[in-house]
Amino acid sequence: MAPFIHSPLKTSNTSILTKALFLLPMMAVALPTYSESFTAKRTGQGFTDLTQDFTSSISNPALLTKFRNNDDVFFSLNIGLMASDKYNVIDTAENIRDNLDILAGDINGMSLQIIQSPEQVKSYKDDLNQQVDNIIADFERIDGKIVKIRNGVNLQIIIPNQLFSFGLFTNQYSRIGGIMDYNENDEKILDDAILSGDLDLEDLESATTAIGYSIAEAGFMAGYSAITHAHYDLSIGAKLKYQRIELYYNRVQISNFDDDDFEITNDENITNKSGTNIDLGLYINWGAKRQWHAALVTNNLLDKTVRHADQDLTFTLKSSTSLGLSYQNTWVSVATDIDLTDREQLSSIEPSKYAGVGAEFRFYEHIQFRLGYRTDLNDVDGDIYTAGIGISPWQVFAIDIAAFTGDSDTIGAALQLSLKI
Question: How far apart are CA 99 and CA 9, in angstroms?
Fold first, then answer.
């Protein structure tokens, strides 16, 4: 290193979604499912789909009976991602790590400098102190701040039938939160290192912590038209699934923070529990043109609890019930889905309970435009505004895309590819 020329602090402006993609290995630790399905049709319409049609049976198995006579076999693949990093925790943590590497190189290389005068020594140490000040300022900026990331993947194959409609599905939903834990003693460690000319980054105590869970399922679903009446139709449905819940925890010193090192893929970071579970759905439509629709869905009839003994961390998957209502005609659908009970939760985080409203406008049968809004009735997550578009030429192949934004710089997107044969 040339004398009296300090290494500049590194800065970056990487987008949150790009960073979220790097963190996906932490979440996708199991092969797909959970009731919070990231379908693009559902997402674009304010996360409402309990009363849509048979293509949304993964959310309500009673919808398996809501199909057209010319519908035979339906395939769909969905991918979705949501991220919230209001305080740029990921970017800033990476900057801190890189700037610490630079600072360590400058401090440990002091003995190699060609010092020509006391003024040069003072200038050199002033530069080191400024680097420490900048690093500490970054620490304090994100100390205690949380980054949230979710993802979902699901695949369903549906075979509708007048007597007995059924399908196979696999679905995965993950949620992770990361936080910076700044230890004020690190500032003294850095200041003392400047005086001694020796800095070991392993002595720093600040760290990033990731806590999250993944719910993966695969199973069989079926629907049955229980009542066909002159004024209304009533259907029931059920999903029998094999379920794997993974609870994970990882703590990494800030000097080691890296997209690769921060993956939650090692067995030592994961506690899991597997077993069977059941979802039940009910769907009714009425009116002269069957334009009114209602649904009631209960997910996970069997409660599950996973404990991470080393960290005293508990995840509870309880049964949850949601209500759906909608009005539909040939060109528009207006719907609302409301959670009647709380959703799954970590012991350290309050559970969410959502309410969403959305609309779908159909043009020429082959183009759909969607808008929606979702809020958390428990004020755990921020409000979300959604939009989406669908293209389904000849009612055979369909592509649906959704995007959303919301409080705390939340952004996300979902993609759905579908095929009817």
Answer: 6
Nearby residues of 65 by Cβ (< 8 Å), 6 or more positions away = 54, 160, 165, 223, 224, 225, 235, 237, 283
Q: Please tell me which residue, 91 or 70, carries the higher pLDDT value.
A: 91
Tell me the sheet residues that pair with 251. 209
Q: How, if at all, do strands 332-339 and 345-346 pair?
A: unpaired
> How many beta carbons lie within 10 A of that of residue 404, not counting itself?
23
CA angle 39, 41, 47 (to 5 degrees): 75
Within 143-192, strands assigned E span 146-159, 165-181
219: nearest Cα among 299, 319, 306, 282: 299
Least Cα distance to 190 among 283, 96, 278, 260 occurs for 96
Distances (CA, A) of 244 to 78, 157, 248, 272: 20, 21, 13, 7
**Which long-range contacts (C-beta less than 8 Å, at least 24 apart) are formed by 396-403?**
396/420, 396/421, 400/39, 400/40, 400/41, 400/44, 400/368, 401/40, 401/44, 402/40, 402/41, 402/43, 402/44, 402/80, 402/370, 403/44
pTM > 0.90: yes or no:
no
Given a contact cutoff of 8 angstroms between Cβ atoms, the answer to whether 51 and 324 are in contact is: yes
Q: What is the CA radius of gyration of the chain?
A: 26
Q: Is the dihedral of CA 299, 151, 176, 274 positive or negative?
A: positive
Instruction: Determine the length of the chain.
Output: 421
Phi first, then psi: give them for residue 160, nearest 5 degrees: -75, 150
As a whole number, the mean pLDDT across the chain is: 85
216: pLDDT strictly greater than 50: yes
The residue behind tokens 């339906």 is 74
Phi and psi torsions of 57, nearest 5°: -65, -20
Give the whole-angstrom CA distance, residue 370 versus residue 233. Answer: 27
Average pLDDT over residues 310-320: 85
Q: Which of 78-82, 111-115, 133-137, 307-311 has the lowest mean pLDDT?
A: 111-115
Residue 178 has pLDDT above 50, yes or no: yes
Percent of the chain residues topping a pLDDT of 90: 55
**Helix, strand, or coil (residue 326):** strand
46 backbone φψ class: left, alpha, beta (φ>0; ψ -120 to 50): left
Nearest-5° Cα angle at 38, 373 to 24: 115
DSSP classification of residue 87: T
